Amino acid sequence: MSRFYPLNAKAPVTLFHDGHCPFCRVEVAWLGKHRHREHVKLVDIQAPSFHADAHATDFATMMGKLHVLDSQGQWYIGMDASRALYAVLGYRRLVWLSCLPGLRGVMDAAYRFFARRRVKLGRWWEKRRLKNQRHT
Question: What does the pLDDT read at residue 136?
């Protein structure tokens, strides 16, 4: 499989996101306003109606890394999910750059670092945001 395979993602894609995550909520709000929002179907994995087993996986796995499923049934996971999402949104040049040797490794490592700490960072970020709102 080529390192550029996320560029092959076919719209529409389904983005499986954590509706309880503050960072995810910001991203989902941005996607809702994006000019190509029709290319992305959003599925909140925290919703009571969501069942990971219907996608041959489990909830913990989906909470651990971002998952995107394209219209051809191809899964993209982790940083490649972000790449596939942004490719179908029209940011193909940036995705291509992010696939280059060196940069790809750094971005993948940064994603893994963030993904492992996402919940804790999200709580911290929410507290700071609420604190700043009270002081303005």
Answer: 66
